Amino acid sequence: MKSSDNVGVTFVNAVTGRGVLNGVVNVQLGVFEFGSDGKGEVNGDLSVACRLRMDAKCAEDLRNHLNDILALIDEAKAGAVGGVVADGTEAAERPNGKGH
Predict the structure, then answer these.
(1) Which has more pLDDT, 62 or 99?
(2) How far is residue 97's CA from residue 69's CA, in Å, rounded to a whole number?
(3) pTM given for the model
């Protein structure tokens, strides 16, 4: 792998902003950072985790891929067997059906 391919992974769980300016799609994603108030109460502070900027074609591709992934999740919830694992192969193609 090239050194330029070595980027961190950011977990997000909220869309905090979106828009279009001059044909560029802008999406801001956030993450809840959970902590305690010292009295036993857990609170979640929302902070910006990343900002994505992309052209319309990339946004369309991202939408289509997310729709495909969400369909797989729905199938799994409905009791379907298989699914795509991280490397893009079907789980059923793996020796034990779950990956290595």
Answers:
(1) 62
(2) 18
(3) 0.66
pLDDT digits (tens, 9 = 90+) for 1-12: 577 778 889 999
Tell me if 56 sits within 8 A of 23, measured CB to CB.
Answer: yes
Structure tokens at 23: 């044909």
- Looking at residue 3, the DSSP 8-state letter turns out to be G
**What is the spatial distance between Cα 69 and Cα 77, in angstroms, rounded to a whole number?**
13
Task: Look up residue 87 and give its amino acid.
Answer: D
Amino acid at 99: G
The number of residues making up the chain comes to 100
Query: Which runs of consecutive H residues, i.e. helices, occur in 5-90?
Result: 56-77
> How far from each other are the two terminal CA atoms of the chain, in whole angstroms?
21
